[in-house]
Amino acid sequence: MSEQIPGNDLLVVDRIETFIGQFHILENVSVCVPKGSITVMLGRNGAGKTTTLKSIIGLTPPREGKIIFDGMEIQGKQAFNIANLGIGYVPENRAIFRALSVQENLKLAERKKGDFERKSDFIFELFPDLKRLYKLPGNHLSGGQQQMLAVARALVPENKLLLIDEPSEGLAPILIQQMMEAIRKLSETTTILLVEQNFIMASQLAERYTIIDDGKTVQEGLMKDLIEDTDLIHHYLGASIKTRKELEMEHESEN
Amino acid sequence: MNPKTKKLLIGILIAGLLVAAVAGVYAYAGQRAFISTLFSGLTLGSLFFMVAAGLTLIFGLMDVLNFAHGSMFMLGAYIGWQFYTNPTFIFGMAPFLLAFGAGVMVTPIIKPYLIALNISEKLQKALPKIAYVLALAALVFAFVGFDILSVANTAMVAATTTTVGNPLAELSAQEPLSTFWLRPFLMFVSGLLIAVASSRPGDKTQFAPREPIGKKLLMPAALLVLTALSTLVRESASESVLLMNGNLRFALSILLSVAFGFVFGAVIEITLIRPLYVRPTFILLMTLGLSYVIRELVQYLWDPLTYQMSRPPLFAQPGKASSIAEWLQKGSSTIDIYGATVPTYRLFIIALGIAMFILVIFVMTKTRLGMIIRAGVQDPQMVEAMGINVKAVFTVVFAMGVALAALGGIGAAPFLPVQPLMGDTYQTQGLITVVIGGMGSYIGAFVGAMILGMARAFGDYFALKLSLSPAIAEASTVIIMVIVLLTRPQGLFGKKE
Ligand SMILES: Nc1ncnc2c1ncn2[C@@H]1O[C@H](COP(=O)(O)OP(=O)(O)OP(=O)(O)O)[C@@H](O)[C@H]1O
Ligand SMILES: [Mg+2]
Predict the structure, then answer these.
(1) In angstroms, what is the span from residue A187 Cα to ligand 2's centroid?
(2) A77–B206: do the CB atoms touch at under 8 Å?
(3) pLDDT one digit per residue (tens) for chain B, 497 residues
(4) Which of A217, B192, B267, B392 has the fewest CB atoms found within 10 Å of its own CB?
């Protein structure tokens, strides 16, 4: 589609089709994630963003198409094998393990012994709250704290790629800021594929975007182009009209 | 009233009723009867727990209700009893099973190479089938002319008829090594073919990194050594085992039963349950059917008879010890506890139950496996997405559950008649225990088991005393279950869905 530098993509999702039961959920999804960047996936509710991430990690394996990670075809492989190649997954809806303490949630994410010890300083610097909540069981955390734990968990092992599904969902504005900072900091060392409904957040973080609509990739390109293209935003991300206004206001205040 | 004070009040009320009931029974029955009934209750409770622990572990993680659990309990008892009384059968079968296992264990070594093969799709489909058929053929050939029944029967005859003299005296001489070696060899080949088939050669969607094979070599190599060893000593070993100190032999029987249960469980999970996860009702029916298969197999090998396993020496000398020290020294069969005469073997079963409970708690709360299990109960997909092989964890958990059942079986064997139906009561009571305690809760399983054990023991006591039908004791457990289900449908320690 648009400008791609071949050989520089850490992840290439190539025309995948995914079924859940007999439902044809993804009909033709392609995503490119260049190394060292943040790529955001946009689309309405039910467009198939979460399913795309799950197809990549192998929880809903695609029936057709290819997924190439780090030069290797991974479609059809088992999820744990895919994860162990160096892909971290932060699911939507804060799916942390409620019966486990914060500490155990983080320990469980280890792939090698000592992963957590190596990374703990980094993690607690990004999310200082977690240090205080260390011993609490997961079901005692607030929604925002669970979201942070879900992200932190993906940082424990060495990952080349992070798949993050709506990290800002249900967070207070101040926490959204903190989450954005965290993700920006992460992107210095890790490639990120982000699903984000909050257009402000998405547009400030990502260099590239992919729009998915009704199970198909309809557009991809550079974020700076998308911000200019109000029609496109309007057409596919109808829900974010308000977001656009906010954007304009922001532009005004910046000028 | 806020729910917390309400809970507290209900708790106090129940505790009060319990204390009153205990005091009442104590006053009515008198100290001696009370204590000896108490110990019967604890013994039964321990046995119920041994069955319920595995059931609840398996159900909690995998949503599999294992109706073959009672049969696995029985099988554990048979294996341990055989080893303790007359290990001919065990040693006769060992070369076959070990050789087969060694073959299968080659899988992780050859799999990466087989996957990498470039073969046509047709051949990819056909090859595993051919390998399976050949494996079956090798398996059949390995047993041709081998009289498995006579191996089992000599053991049986010896076990029933000879309390004096050498139980091995009647054994017919076995096949010479010069021809016998072919049998384990064929079993090894059969295992290898299974390894080839299950690797699905050429199927590149599988993933098996070519790691250094050092570690993977250990298992098949160890099994091969054991095969060779067990082939050489298949006749003499029985005798030396029987010459062993009885307590040591019993300890080995327990280890063997547990190991057998673990391997058996793993094999059942991989071959029969795994293909059915997409159809949970079929799993239920399959385990039910499996319980019949196991029972029939046992009846075929050892006839539908009832055996009495003798107690190990530590619990066998006639006489009553006045203290634990005296019992351990003399090996008395009973012990005096506050005036009541309690069989010492019961203390062993109670201790075994408590040890198992502590072990389960330790594994669940302190180990990585326990962490994975607790996380997997909630969200196995997410556990998988974190890079953990959940399928393998399922196998391990099922294997552990069956190992617990087998441990219960061998623990109970010197105490219960060893017969093909011995697990059935425990299956039922185990299920009731799990329902009372709360599906998936191991603490609930322990508390539930103790409640049921007490209900049974005191029910029996009163039925006898008041000349009521003994069915009352049996009914009492069901009544307790109904009461619990009506007041707390999720069980005493179950979490609300
Ligand atoms: N288990 C399932 N069974 C049937 N349909 C499903 C299932 N999971 C998802 N779907 C359908 O697949 C489509 C895509 O779902 P998906 O969760 O990928 O959307 P999404 O883009 O992440 O939406 P949102 O922004 O609301 O999170 C939806 O129409 C949804 O109803
Ligand atoms: Mg979604």
Answers:
(1) 21
(2) yes
(3) 677 788 788 888 888 888 888 888 888 888 888 898 999 999 999 999 999 999 999 998 888 899 999 999 999 999 999 999 888 888 888 999 999 999 999 998 888 889 888 888 889 889 999 999 999 999 998 888 887 777 776 555 544 444 444 555 555 556 788 788 889 999 999 999 999 998 888 887 777 766 777 788 889 999 999 999 988 888 788 888 888 899 999 999 999 999 999 999 999 999 999 989 888 889 999 999 999 999 999 998 888 888 889 899 999 888 888 888 899 888 888 998 888 889 999 999 999 999 999 999 999 999 999 999 999 988 999 999 999 999 999 999 999 999 999 999 999 999 899 999 999 989 999 999 999 998 888 899 999 999 999 998 988 888 888 888 878 778 888 888 898 888 888 888 887 65
(4) B392
Q: Which residue of A78, A93, A97 to mutate against B (max B Cβ within 10 Å)?
A: A97
With a 6 Å cutoff on the Cβ, whether A23 touches ligand 1 is yes
Closest by CA to B135, choosing from B145, B127, B123, is B127
- Number of domains, chain B: 1
Task: State whether residue A108 sits within 8 Å of chain B by CB.
Answer: yes
Nearest-atom number in ligand 1 for the CA of A51 is 18
| CB of A20 less than 8 A from some CB of B | no
| CA–CA dist B453, B411 (Å, integer) | 16
Q: Sign of the CA dihedral B22, B23, B25, B29?
A: positive
Residue A170 phi, psi (nearest 5): 70, 15
**Closest residue in chain A to residue B390, using alpha carbons only:** A80
CATH topology classification for A9-86+160-254:
Rossmann fold (3.40.50)
Q: Of the candidates B377, B379, B389, which has its C-beta nearest A95's C-beta?
A: B379
- What pTM value is reported for the model? 0.88
Burial of B12 (0-12, 13-18, 19+ CB in 10 A): exposed
Give chain A's length. Answer: 255
Q: Which ligand is nearest to the CA of A165?
A: 2
Cβ distance of B387 and A157 shorter than 8 Å: yes
| Strand pairing class (A72-73; A64-69) | antiparallel
Q: Where in chain A is the domain with CATH 3.40.50.300?
A: 9-86+160-254
Of B375, B377, B389, the CB nearest to A80: B389
The residue range of the domain holding B65 is 25-160+177-316+333-487
Q: Is residue B371 part of a domain?
A: yes
- Answer yes or no: is B236 within a domain: yes
Q: Does a structural domain hold residue B387? A: yes
Task: Report the residue from B368, B371, B385 with minimal CB separation from A83.
Answer: B385
* CA angle, residues B297, B300, B303, in degrees to nearest 5: 125
Structural domain includes residue B370: yes
